[in-house]
Amino acid sequence: MRRHLTFAALAIVIAVLGGWFYANFERVTQREHVGFSGEAARNPLLALTRLMARMGVESRAIGNAALDKLEGRAALVLPRGRAGYTTGRASRLRAWVEAGGHLIVEAEGPGSRDTVLHALQVSATAGSAKARPQPAEIRLPHAAKPLRAQMAPAINLADFDPSGRTGYAASDGVGTLLLHLARGRGHVTVLPSFYFMTNSAIGEHDHAQLAWEIVRFVPGTRLVAIAPRLDRLSIFGWLAEEARAALIAAAALLVLWGWRAATRFGPIVAEPSPERRRLLDHLRASGRYLWRAGAAPQLIAAARATCLQKIARTRPALMDLTRAERARRLATLTQLPLREIELAWSGDADTPAAFTAAVRTLQSIEEKLTRRLTV
After folding, report:
1. Whole-angstrom Cα distance, residue 202 to residue 199?
2. Cα dihedral 311→316→322→328 (10° resolution)
3. Is-contact 354 348, C-beta < 8 A?
4. Least crowded by CB within 10 Å, which of 81, 124, 160, 327?
5. 298-312 burial string, b = 16+ CB within 10 Å, else e?
């Protein structure tokens, strides 16, 4: 009986918990943004391309190769990210505009390198630091009503071409919202931001209509060319356009170095076989070294001491004589001039000639005394 009551109580608790869970929880489907994929992920202005097609205007993305092939009555949408643009490419863009094209360009950030705006003689400086009310209202001369759009960052755009004609400029207390200029037979529209034309924002506020009205600045536009990612020049192409003078100078130096180095090319000269030096060569080298080192007095003193020792062995009686008497006695025994003997014993051997003569005389005295003794 007790066992049945336990099962019944457990069943009641499970039923109550199940009813409470059913009454308080339900299964729902929740959407999560995963970002764009495919072509929309590669081209942030793909929605603008679709918008132009729906409005009856041909639109397509182009690359760098097709840029120079654009004809008149066309609009080129050029976003920021042009740090690799050379002055030559910017000059070609200006020439295309002056020939009748319509360039819609997004300004780079203040302080960034922008060769395109510089070629078009448009300056971009930082705007006010105060916050801009979002969205901002932009009044275009050919639009039926003010258009609301998000415009950031705050940039002041100005035309510094004295011969140019500013067609229209819209700004608020924070910065420039839009600047439309005339260049030759063409037009330039400069915007601080292309955010309102991107895939994620073109459906908000009046962004789509603003993009269409900007194209309508030039009536009769037949083609909108969108270049979200123009091909950048290779490192060799950039050097050819921006550092041509330096490359020519470097090439000239390389040719000059090669010509100079080529004169030293040829067969390898065999190493000379080492020669065995004679003892006399070593003695001569040692004597020259000692003479250059200022050891002449020590050398002549050593030579005189050696000669005196040999005289003491061969003619000991001469050692008891005075220097003058010994010199006269040696002159008689050796048949050498007395003057040479006196210079050899007491002269200053301060020149190579005097040193050589003194040593030669001392050597002659040694030889003659030794030979006479032997005889």
Report:
1. 6
2. -60
3. yes
4. 160
5. ebbeebbeebeebbe
Query: Rounded distance, CA 194 to CA 100, Å?
Result: 23
> Are residues 155 and 192 in contact, defined by beta-carbon separation less than 8 angstroms?
yes
Q: What is the pLDDT of residue 231?
A: 47
Q: What are phi and psi of 103, to 5 degrees?
A: -100, 120
Nearest to 104 by CA among 232, 186, 214: 214
User: In 10 A of CB 198, how many CB atoms?
Assistant: 18
Structure tokens at 333: 């025994």
CA distance 133 to 171: 13
User: Of 344, 345, 347, 351, which Cα lies nearest the Cα of 296?
Assistant: 351
What is the pTM (predicted TM-score) of this model? 0.55
**Cα–Cα nearest to 167, from 145, 193, 188:** 188
Angle formed at CA 322 by CA 318 and CA 328, multiple of 5 degrees: 70
Across 201-223, b (16+ Cβ under 10 Å) vs e yields bbeebbbbbbbbbbbbbbeebeb
Three-state secondary structure call for residue 22: helix
- Side chain identity, residue 249: A
Residue 152 pLDDT class (50, 70, 90 cuts): confident
Rounded Cα–Cα distance for residues 119 and 187 (Å): 14
The pair of structure tokens assigned to 20 is: 């409470």
Domain covering 39-238, topology: Rossmann fold (3.40.50)
The kind and range of the H/E element at 69 are: none
Task: With residue 99 as reference, give the H or E element that holds it.
Answer: none
β-bridge partners, 103: 76, 188
Q: Which of 92, 160, 80 is nearest to 121 (CA)?
A: 160
Structure tokens at 254: 């390389």
Q: Quote the Cα angle for 255-259-264, to 5°.
A: 145
Domain ranges of the chain: 39-238, 285-374
pLDDT digits (tens, 9 = 90+) for 217-258: 888 888 888 775 544 556 776 677 667 788 888 889 998 888
Q: Show the tokens assigned to 48.
A: 């603008």
